[in-house]
Amino acid sequence: MADIDLLQKITSAAGLSRYGQIAAQLQARIVSGDWPPGEAIPAEGALAKEFGIALGTIRQAIAVLVQEGLLERVQGRGTFVRKGLSGASLMRFFRFGGADGATAVPRSEILSCRAVRLDKAMAERFGLPSGARGLAITRRRWLDDKPRLLESIWLPLPRCEALQQLPVWEWGDLLYPLLGSQCGITVHRAVDEVTFRTLAHDEADLLELPDAHPCAVVTRHAFDLRGTCIEYRLTRGDAFAFRYTADIR
Amino acid sequence: MADIDLLQKITSAAGLSRYGQIAAQLQARIVSGDWPPGEAIPAEGALAKEFGIALGTIRQAIAVLVQEGLLERVQGRGTFVRKGLSGASLMRFFRFGGADGATAVPRSEILSCRAVRLDKAMAERFGLPSGARGLAITRRRWLDDKPRLLESIWLPLPRCEALQQLPVWEWGDLLYPLLGSQCGITVHRAVDEVTFRTLAHDEADLLELPDAHPCAVVTRHAFDLRGTCIEYRLTRGDAFAFRYTADIR
DNA sequence: TAGTGGTCTAGACCACTTG
DNA sequence: AAGTGGTCTAGACCACTAC
């Protein structure tokens, strides 16, 4: 009992509750790949026994990671490591044509893909030194046989080197599953910023829209399980197809 | 014990856990005004005793309402009914000029305010019969001595009747605190939908922007504690001042 | 010092899923 | 039937806030 009290005081001094510490340890195992995405983690009872804590406490730790979106609980089946984002989530911002336009995956056409020197700002995003190398990709996305979105994507090297080996016609329509299978990167979180401007000449040409047509610009930072930025993306689409819903409080 | 088991079975049959039921009862007291916004609710121990349940269960019930945004817990002080939205939250979508533009409250200029017959769609939003009366308000909002936003607001009558009695020059810059003080309505949730279009002649005039200038349109449905829609608002602003950040997962 | 919420324990039984 | 998470109990002590 005295041991437990002492331990409690030490952890409190460190600024973390017991379940907070446990949550951090569980997170470490997920991040390290010890428990891969889609797999079940050990049962509550087993974990409680392993850490030498009560059931309620391990449940609290798990609840933290569920809240963070790292874990998913399913009654009767177990607790699972969440798979990464599908990547189709960018379409949340646009509604093109048909009724099922929201769910359909637009076809991807790679316009260019080459290794480049990252400028200072871009390298900093990826936590790399200035002048580090990256992959610069230009992509056009089609829906209903019409060009809908224009994307400029930057990825850090050498982390995404495997992509260079794979011919672009084998990439498929979604980047994130590709990052998972080829580079072992799970995209766990993305932050999108929306602004608005008019299209440049070349952009308008590629999107088959009039010159200086209004467009919505979505700037995305995507992060892996560790919280490291692993993608910077600039998406442009017809402003008049933009539609977004926000729920406040 | 047998009583408790029986009760458990009945409640399960009803599809609600014990803490779910308790949460519903607490919510009812909040909605009814029994526990007004900003006030503390009784302590956990007192509630547990009143409902004849364990501490952990009442805590779970409270957690539900915290998650819904109805309650707020503060260690050492108590659990409080959350006050409604301030109404300034619409500025989340726009960044005008200065650094503190995000926090500043724009000055409100009421252009018109009159009682009208609501059309079918509008009456349905408010849960009123077709042809019911409502208040139609046009408002222009200023920041840095420039017109920034144009708002068309509809409110249900007779719920908001008190507003008609008050001269518009005494309304102040924020609508929601006014709805609280004059009509006893707490705005607890809002759903905003963003689209883009170009300005009509009259709109461009009022915003001192060129004709057919691109604009962002925010369509808002606001709801009270009961979940009833109590405001429909259409806000228009310069598209080039639009900026919004979304965090995915 | 008294009262509040925050953390933690060591059990019990229930509901759901799978084999 | 066995294993999982979901609900609930009846306590204990700690950290924070206010008087």
Automatic annotation (TrEMBL), chains A, B:
<protein>
    <submittedName>
        <fullName>GntR family transcriptional regulator</fullName>
    </submittedName>
</protein>
<dbReference type="GO" id="GO:0045892">
    <property type="term" value="P:negative regulation of DNA-templated transcription"/>
</dbReference>
<dbReference type="InterPro" id="IPR000524">
    <property type="entry name" value="Tscrpt_reg_HTH_GntR"/>
</dbReference>
<dbReference type="GO" id="GO:0003700">
    <property type="term" value="F:DNA-binding transcription factor activity"/>
</dbReference>
<keyword id="KW-0238">DNA-binding</keyword>
<dbReference type="InterPro" id="IPR011663">
    <property type="entry name" value="UTRA"/>
</dbReference>
<dbReference type="Pfam" id="PF07702">
    <property type="entry name" value="UTRA"/>
</dbReference>
<dbReference type="InterPro" id="IPR028978">
    <property type="entry name" value="Chorismate_lyase_/UTRA_dom_sf"/>
</dbReference>
<dbReference type="Pfam" id="PF00392">
    <property type="entry name" value="GntR"/>
</dbReference>
<dbReference type="InterPro" id="IPR036390">
    <property type="entry name" value="WH_DNA-bd_sf"/>
</dbReference>
<keyword id="KW-0804">Transcription</keyword>
<dbReference type="InterPro" id="IPR050679">
    <property type="entry name" value="Bact_HTH_transcr_reg"/>
</dbReference>
<feature type="domain" description="HTH gntR-type">
    <location>
        <begin position="16"/>
        <end position="84"/>
    </location>
</feature>
<dbReference type="GO" id="GO:0003677">
    <property type="term" value="F:DNA binding"/>
</dbReference>
<keyword id="KW-0805">Transcription regulation</keyword>
<dbReference type="InterPro" id="IPR036388">
    <property type="entry name" value="WH-like_DNA-bd_sf"/>
</dbReference>
